[in-house]
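Re: the request from the purification team.
They wanted to know what the chain is likely to look like in 3D before they choose a buffer screen. I agreed to run a prediction and write the result into the notebook, where they can find it.
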Amino acid sequence: MKRGALFLATWGGMGYLPLAPGTWGTLGAVPLALLLGYQGKTFTFLFLPPFFFLSVWSAGVAEGKLGAEDHPAIVIDEVIGFLLATALLPPRLPILILSFLLFRLFDILKPFPIRWIEGKVSGGLGVVLDDLIAGLLSQGVIRGLCLAKFLTC
């Protein structure tokens, strides 16, 4: 069970890749984001809540197994955050690239309230929650660009 949690938390080992494991983890989420984009809204709504709970669980187990809080190899938080950044948006390359860049920017810079949440919540939920907020911020920027007609969504 712990091996499965570690496998999920490192997104199949992508979190062990050198240099910027969070970026690798986000890149590893692109195929799943595309799949969700093509499956439609209902499937996405049904998929994301259980995946969130699996992410929190696996991140918590992996922290214990790896012996560090929010260990860099744990990238399931980037996966769920990026899925939220792209949720319900059309699966088109410009939107996907912009979502990727915005999500990584918010995840790295950690503007308010991301850094504040990161310091207040611990365990698996703490690992995942800051990336969910980065995903929501990314989604908000994309939606704003769509409303302003800078992007076609």
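For the purification team: Residues 2-147 form one domain.
Please add any questions underneath this entry.
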